[in-house]
Each structure stands twice: as C-alpha cells, then as structure tokens.
Amino acid sequence: MDSLYLLIPLSVLLVLAILVGLWWAVDRGQFEDLEQEAERILRDD
User: Per residue, what are the HEC states of the chain?
Assistant: First the structure.
C-alpha cells in the first residue's frame, strides 16, 4: 500500500509530461504536413 503513495503521483506526473510533450509538438507544427515527409523518403536527392 505504501508503494501506491509513490506510484500514483509519479504516474500522474508522467501523464502530464506526455500531454505537455504532445501539446508542444502540435504547437510547433510537427504534424502539419505528414504526406510530404512520407514522400521525402522515396525521392532521390
């Protein structure tokens, strides 16, 4: 039972860190043009 007092706040912090990372990626435009990045691998430079 004592370990739950540690694990529950740590899991909440982990979820918040994941949400902040996702928000940061969306705000920076990481997911704006997925088609061009997928086709970039196939093109020869």
Answer: CHHHHHHHHHHHHHHHHHHHHHHHHHHCCCCCCHHHHHHHCCCCC
Q: pLDDT band for 45, please (50, 70, 90 cuts).
A: low
Q: Which two tokens stand for residue 31?
A: 């997911």
Cα→Cα distances 38→11, 16, 21, 31, Å: 33, 29, 22, 12
Give me the phi and psi of 31, to 5 degrees please.
-110, 25
pLDDT tens digit sequence for 14-36: 999 999 999 999 999 888 887 88
d(C-alpha 34, C-alpha 20), whole Å: 21
